[in-house]
Amino acid sequence: MTDRIYGVADTTFSRVNMGEIAVKTITKEDPEGKIIRYTVPGIKDLPVAAKKLIEEGCDGVITLGWVGKTQLDKYSYLAASIGLITVQLMTSTHVIDVTIHEDETEDEERLRDIAIDRAKKHSINLVKLVRDGRSALTGLAGKGLRQGYENAGQLD
Amino acid sequence: MTDRIYGVADTTFSRVNMGEIAVKTITKEDPEGKIIRYTVPGIKDLPVAAKKLIEEGCDGVITLGWVGKTQLDKYSYLAASIGLITVQLMTSTHVIDVTIHEDETEDEERLRDIAIDRAKKHSINLVKLVRDGRSALTGLAGKGLRQGYENAGQLD
Amino acid sequence: MTDRIYGVADTTFSRVNMGEIAVKTITKEDPEGKIIRYTVPGIKDLPVAAKKLIEEGCDGVITLGWVGKTQLDKYSYLAASIGLITVQLMTSTHVIDVTIHEDETEDEERLRDIAIDRAKKHSINLVKLVRDGRSALTGLAGKGLRQGYENAGQLD
Amino acid sequence: MTDRIYGVADTTFSRVNMGEIAVKTITKEDPEGKIIRYTVPGIKDLPVAAKKLIEEGCDGVITLGWVGKTQLDKYSYLAASIGLITVQLMTSTHVIDVTIHEDETEDEERLRDIAIDRAKKHSINLVKLVRDGRSALTGLAGKGLRQGYENAGQLD
Amino acid sequence: MTDRIYGVADTTFSRVNMGEIAVKTITKEDPEGKIIRYTVPGIKDLPVAAKKLIEEGCDGVITLGWVGKTQLDKYSYLAASIGLITVQLMTSTHVIDVTIHEDETEDEERLRDIAIDRAKKHSINLVKLVRDGRSALTGLAGKGLRQGYENAGQLD
């Protein structure tokens, strides 16, 4: 089997270098995997970056977006989210979407920690889905897992 | 006729193992049917999971999503909903969308019951549509059926 | 010329049997037309039902949706509306969308009357567009017609 | 060169006969152009009407929509707007979207004047783009032009 | 290698001639590049303009939109944003979206300065992506860059 190729798409708008975190985490998680990175200005540029990465051969992509505080930023988030889902449907390929919203917390240090945790955990999710397939996460189904925050846990 | 294949797509974000409930309900409702399950991190990953399940041969899919309490979660819900409808239009295949919103009730036990009821009832809906076709639910048309809550009932 | 085929897609969520009203109205309006009916659980299932009806040969479709009172129901309405427009663009076929919002009025009898009126009037609109073509409604252009309510009337 | 064909799509929901205004304005602006008109019930029917007009040979289309006052009307506006943009992308053809919102003003006479002005000005825009091409409006770029209202003017 | 072709799409609705600024900035940044400009009435016309520019051979496009103050303008922004992302996915080509919201500031002089700065910086971003490729901005990833405002800076 060919080694897996992972795409990492990040932005210059982001205030944390989540692309680097994703590259390191994927490398650690799947040392035989190859990684291609694509940096764009902001979240609305991420869908086409993901599509181009898939066209270059990536078996899965992680996008790392950062969203401002205003209502307009939220509409941009919605448009980008629709676009990222569309890419996946056009290519039948996973694009795991990591998004940090600048208003998740007032505390900048906490915000950085959220970004790092979310980027790491979703990088691992991507490797599991790409390398191990559709049952890789089934043991964790319904467990209330969270990225960037503590797990919410299972209700039943 | 070939036996039917059902797809079940669920998430690790969910706080109830609705995927398991769907598998059990479909198995009981259509014992000759085959089931393929796909677990992803969150709701925005469900559309591509549904598409891949259909590409693997599923005649219909049920997705089981869990949505947080913030406005951003609601935008994610909107993007995912648009994506799930798009999958159906691309493939002319039903993808029944079960969604639980964490703010439907403050009572966690009640929330779990809603999730179980909704997952069960929609699993049965999926079997009826896939196995019995477009008239299977016509006897119930306009009856104000609800999933997760008591039926609202018919006005006329 | 072949007789026309009309599609009627309705839901079990609806509290009024609008599908039946549509079938009766279309039959009366175009007695030579054939009708195919498709019943699904809720509004987010209507777009694929409409697409499948068109693939079965329908020259036009009417969908009859019922939407709850919460903001989440409204997001579902938005997603379904985008989906219904997408079906039309994929097939170049009219899908007339009848939607009743449960919060249009507090009065349940009034709500039922709105549903009946809207379903009837749009069924007639569908027949006119399918049977008589793009000029059939031009004599009424700009007249402020309403379905479910009294006509608003023309301003000029 | 073949004479140009313009599409005009309007609604019976509108309270001003903007379709007629568009037909007259286009005829005056490009007397050699041919016009095809398509009347539908409401704004959500406009995207497919525009697509069918383009399929009938139109080189460009103007749609004339009227939107009610409620939040639900605004979601319908959003869905229709996405649809109208999608038509353009599917066909690489301009569809100029004239929309009147019933809550732009309380004064019905003023509302009628807005509708007339907007329909006229955008009809001229359509002719310029279809007949004269991508540079036709460049002399007016950044000039703060408005339709239905006085021009806002240039800031620099 | 063939010289690059850049597309510039702007509007007559805008109150600043951002198209001209983009043309000048791209010319300065990549003197061997060719530029094609397309002017349309408003933001909802930008997606098809971008698509047509790409069909004429552009390797990348910058769109320069201006959005009014009302909630309806914001829905138009959302629809246009989804359309601009769709164009990129249909063509696998970058379309950098510069948008000025008239309510970003009450001060018209400040608003003009925001427009100029944003148009310039994103024109440079476009050249970097088109000419230098997916790694051109990676050195700036996570740096909290802003266009129209001061950079927010990196948190880690």
TrEMBL record, chains A, B, C, D, E:
User: Which GO MF terms are attached to this record?
Assistant: riboflavin synthase activity
Question: Record keywords: Cytoplasm included?
Answer: no
Record-level GO cellular component terms: riboflavin synthase complex
Q: What class of enzyme is it?
A: transferase
* Enzymatic reactions: 2 6,7-dimethyl-8-(1-D-ribityl)lumazine + H(+) = 5-amino-6-(D-ribitylamino)uracil + riboflavin
Pfam families recorded for this chain?
A: DMRL_synthase
This protein's pathway reads: Cofactor biosynthesis; riboflavin biosynthesis; riboflavin from 2-hydroxy-3-oxobutyl phosphate and 5-amino-6-(D-ribitylamino)uracil: step 2/2
Which controlled-vocabulary keywords does the entry list?
Riboflavin biosynthesis, Transferase
What EC number(s) is this enzyme filed under? Answer: 2.5.1.9
State the similarity comment: Belongs to the DMRL synthase family.
* Name under which the protein is recorded: Riboflavin synthase
